[in-house]
């Protein structure tokens, strides 16, 4: 039934209509037609309410569909998050195992990295043992420092007493990648009377002193260069005859040397690529003859620990090659004698994790980079669309040509060209530098060394992305694939000409002409 107000208005409408047509009122006619009208109105009202119902149920269906989609989306997101959590734990567990293996194989007495071995405790010094009753062997507590302090006295106007309340004690604990850790605490904080002070902030200038004479040297050379070839044969001869060292070279170089003279029969090399994996256990030094690219090549040969590298400059630039090739005798004499300052150049450890990979065993081998890993649009003409996470916290979405994750050594390379800052190579950090971002506010970042970064190609990305490692080995990343990157435990120790800082400053002055400007003359207006 239509509502009464509607009926009334319908009655009025019918009466006025009848009058206007005939000029008089016929009640029977009127009653008959009124009934038809009511039926008609009822019919049209029913039809109207049907339409409303249809519209309403359509709306309900749309809402239900949206809710279903949202639920499906949420479930998918939850499943994806769970999958990532699983992969992340596998990654952590694998790193932990690698670290333990490394320590065992090296007979390394040093404590493993905090993030790699979680259940280990740092040996306690005396202070910590004192502390045991209140905070356990692994804590560092201000309490025992403070409790032995004599009370300071100062006049209190209200009570008339001359004393200070004891300073509150506290405990600092270290937190890294979601876990408590006490690694490094003695390096970082010194507890003096409950004050927090930093003792060491980054590695200091490191000096290498030989405890026995070096025996084995690997000479790595830039290919296709006559100058390098000539220098290489001279250097190899000198190392053998003057220094009595065993010289190793790559198979290509051995062939080149033998083509020159059979004298070089003594030079050693390897036949099977697999032997490269054990080189670090035999070599005392690596000498490179070339530019920065040859240092990168040397670093890439060592997937684990790297022997000290002495880089000679035979390229156009040379940020990592402080030694002049013409002075090779004096330089090598001084390095072989020691002590020698070294720069510990941090590397990044990169894992490509395929969306399709469901188990740890399907994972690709990690790749170590000395400069950077770049994720870019490669041959795709679409914007790269990269989701970036730092220790599982969403950082940002890169929409542009790509992203560079660089070491501080690589900060003067591609990252610099993309607008990143130059950073001293001993500063432990990871540079996060976008390449041509399509945004006005995307400034580069420098993140702390302990983080794990995950760069993922989202499922809704229009194109694929490509990862390259120190400018080499392109790998395609499809939707759902990700690159996980963290600081590697094996740095590249490079010998310094003077020391780490002087060499770095010299390289940016000479290599980049950093801040070259004519000095303003005294001759002109000045402050009164
Ligand atoms: N637009 C760019 O600046 C750009 C583009 C691609 C690659 N690169 C860099 O090239 C590197 C590969 O070097 P390569 O010699 O094998 O290739 P390459 O022969 O193409 O040389 C690239 C240049 O980068 C210089 N370089 C390399 N490492 C450096 C460092 N740490 N600091 C300052 N300069 C450095 C080299 O001396 C060389 O002049 C990549 O790791 C990347 O950093 C730079
Ligand atoms: N032993 C090697 N075997 C194969 N490739 C090498 C080797 N050493 C260097 N390379 C490659 O050769 C290329 C050039 O090397 P490098 O950068 O040392 O010389 P350069 O280009 O003359 O130096 P610069 O770029 O400073 O002018 C790099 O891409 C590097 O990866």
TrEMBL record:
InterPro entries: ATP-NAD_kinase_N (IPR017438), ATP-NAD_kinase_PpnK-typ_C (IPR017437), NAD/diacylglycerol_kinase_sf (IPR016064), NADK (IPR002504). Residues 67-101 form a coiled coil. It is an enzyme of class 2 (transferase). Residues 1-28 are annotated as: Disordered. Signal peptide: none annotated. GO terms for molecular function: ATP binding; NAD+ kinase activity. It catalyses: NAD(+) + ATP = ADP + NADP(+) + H(+). Pfam families: NAD_kinase, NAD_kinase_C. Keywords: ATP-binding, Coiled coil, Kinase, NAD, NADP, Nucleotide-binding, Transferase. Its EC number is 2.7.1.23. GO terms for biological process: NAD+ metabolic process; NADP+ biosynthetic process. Belongs to the NAD kinase family. This is NAD(+) kinase.
């Amino acid at each position: 039934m239509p509502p009464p107000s509607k009926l009334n208005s319908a009655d009025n409408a019918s009466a006025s209509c009848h009058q206007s047509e005939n000029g008089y009122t016929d009640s029977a006619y009127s009653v008959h037609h009124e009934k038809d009208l009511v039926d008609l109105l009822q019919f049209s009202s029913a039809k109207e309410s049907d339409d409303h119902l249809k519209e309403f149920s359509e709306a309900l269906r749309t809402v239900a569909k949206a809710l279903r989609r949202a639920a499906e989306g949420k479930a998918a997101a939850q499943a994806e998050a769970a999958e990532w959590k699983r992969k992340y734990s596998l990654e952590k567990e694998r790193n932990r195992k690698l670290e333990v293996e490394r320590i065992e194989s090296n007979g390394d007495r040093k404590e493993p990295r905090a993030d790699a071995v979680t259940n280990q405790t740092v040996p306690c010094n005396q202070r910590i043992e004192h502390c045991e009753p209140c905070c356990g062997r692994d804590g560092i507590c201000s309490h025992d420092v403070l409790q032995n302090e004599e009370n300071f006295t100062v006049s209190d106007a209200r009570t008339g007493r001359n004393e200070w309340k004891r300073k509150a004690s506290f405990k600092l604990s270290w937190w890294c990648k979601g876990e408590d850790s006490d690694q490094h605490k003695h390096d970082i904080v010194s507890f003096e009377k409950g004050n927090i002070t930093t003792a060491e902030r980054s590695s200091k200038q490191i000096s290498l002193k030989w405890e026995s004479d070096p025996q084995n040297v690997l000479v790595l050379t830039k290919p296709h260069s006559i100058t390098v070839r000539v220098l290489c044969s001279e250097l190899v001869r000198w190392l053998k005859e003057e220094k009595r060292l065993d010289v190793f070279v790559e198979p290509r170089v051995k062939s080149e040397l033998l083509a020159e003279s059979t004298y070089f029969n003594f030079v050693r090399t390897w036949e099977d690529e697999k032997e490269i994996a054990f080189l670090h256990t035999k070599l005392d030094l690596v000498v490179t003859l070339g530019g920065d690219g040859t240092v990168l090549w040397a670093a890439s040969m060592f997937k684990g620990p790297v022997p000290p590298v002495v880089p000679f400059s035979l390229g156009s630039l040379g940020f990592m090659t402080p030694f002049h090739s013409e002075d090779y005798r004096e330089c090598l004499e001084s390095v072989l004698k020691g002590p020698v300052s070294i720069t510990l150049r941090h590397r990044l450890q990169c894992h490509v994790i395929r969306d399709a990979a469901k188990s740890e065993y399907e994972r690709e081998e990690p790749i170590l980079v000395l400069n950077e890993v770049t994720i870019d649009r490669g041959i795709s003409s679409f914007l790269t669309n990269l989701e970036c996470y730092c220790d599982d916290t969403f950082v940002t979405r890169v929409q542009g040509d790509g992203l560079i994750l660089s070491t501080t050594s690589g900060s003067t390379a591609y990252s610099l060209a993309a607008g990143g800052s130059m950073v001293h190579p001993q500063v432990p950090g990871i540079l996060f530098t976008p390449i041509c971002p399509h945004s006005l506010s995307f400034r580069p970042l420098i993140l702390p060394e302990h983080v794990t970064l995950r760069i993922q190609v989202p499922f809704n990305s229009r194109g694929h992305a490509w990862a390259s490692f120190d400018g080499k080995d392109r790998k395609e990343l499809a939707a759902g694939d990700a690159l996980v990157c963290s600081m590697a435990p094996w740095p590249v120790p490079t010998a310094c000409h003077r020391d780490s800082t002087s060499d770095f400053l010299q390289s940016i002055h000479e290599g980049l002409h950093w801040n070259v400007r004519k000095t303003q003359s005294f001759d002109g207006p000045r402050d009164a």
